[in-house]
Write a structure and sequence with these properties.
Blueprint (H helix, E strand, L loop, with lengths): L1 H9 L2 E4 L6 E2 L6 H12 L5 H4 L4 H11 L1 H19 L3 E2 L3 H10 L4 E9 H10 L8 E5 L11 H10 L6 E5 L2 H10 L3 E4 L5 H5 L6 E3 L2 H8 L7
Parallel strand pairs: 1-4, 1-6, 4-5, 6-7, 7-8
Antiparallel strand pairs: 2-3
Helix pairs in contact: 1-11, 2-4, 2-5, 4-5, 5-7, 6-11
């Protein structure tokens, strides 16, 4: 993908979403189990659709509608569960090399921008010997953090890295990632890691779409690859 190679070569700041592009957070401790435990910890009656959800962030959103206290306690419990989950998370193939080699490029930097908690991301990176290769973690710190699709975390990353949107790309695997990138005027690299995602992401006009992180690694290395 010559376009991806050129994009990465021209933009030294490599911003990565965490769950998906770096690892599968809930591969060991399933998202359904996390949602069940989170819902039980909330101590409130849940609507039927939330009782059956496999997305812990659905519960975090609901907690925010109930009260500040419930939102804070729910976010803290989700952070605890995420930290537990990353202990058995499955690394995404080639992602660790993307981080190491992306950071090693002349003038290059790698940062994580995620709706997951900073505590969980930091724990994962340290567990895998990657923390020193990551210039910053821009992620959830509290129940009040504005999460993607809001571009707040991407703007915070640019400020923290002392760089501009014109020097960065953002790789994500969800529609909310692409929406946030578009709002922040950062070219999005859509990681279509499941069937149907290529078509689902097309309306967001990503700068590039990949189906394996090996494509991003090859671009970091400056190699021309075909998909």
């Amino acid at each position: 993908m010559t376009e991806l190679r050129a994009l990465i070569a021209a933009r030294p700041s490599l911003l990565l979403d965490f769950d998906g592009p770096v690892c599968s957070v809930f591969a060991g401790l399933s998202s359904r189990r996390v949602a069940e435990r989170l819902g039980a910890a909330m101590g409130v009656a849940l609507p039927a659709h939330l009782s059956a959800t496999s997305d812990p962030f659905d519960l975090l959103d609901y907690a925010a509608q109930l009260s500040d206290d419930v939102a804070v306690s729910t976010e803290q419990e989700l952070t605890r569960l995420e930290v537990e989950a990353v202990e058995v998370a499955t690394p995404t193939p080639h992602a660790h090399d993307v981080i190491r080699d992306g950071a090693a490029r002349r003038g290059g930097s790698v940062a994580i921008v995620s709706n997951n908690s900073i505590a969980a991301i930091d724990a994962y990176l340290r567990r895998h010997g990657l923390r020193t290769h990551v210039a910053g973690i821009y992620a959830r710190t509290s129940a009040a953090t504005a999460l993607k699709p809001n571009p707040h975390l991407l703007h915070t990353a640019l400020t923290g890295l002392r760089t501009e949107a014109t020097a960065a790309t953002f790789t994500g695997d969800s529609a909310t990632d692409l929406q946030a990138a578009n709002s922040a005027a950062i070219p999005a690299i859509a990681y279509a890691n499941k069937p149907g995602k290529v078509e689902r992401f097309a309306p967001y006009a990503p700068a590039a779409t990949i189906t394996s992180m090996s494509a991003l690694l090859d671009a970091v290395h400056g190699q021309v690859v075909s998909q």
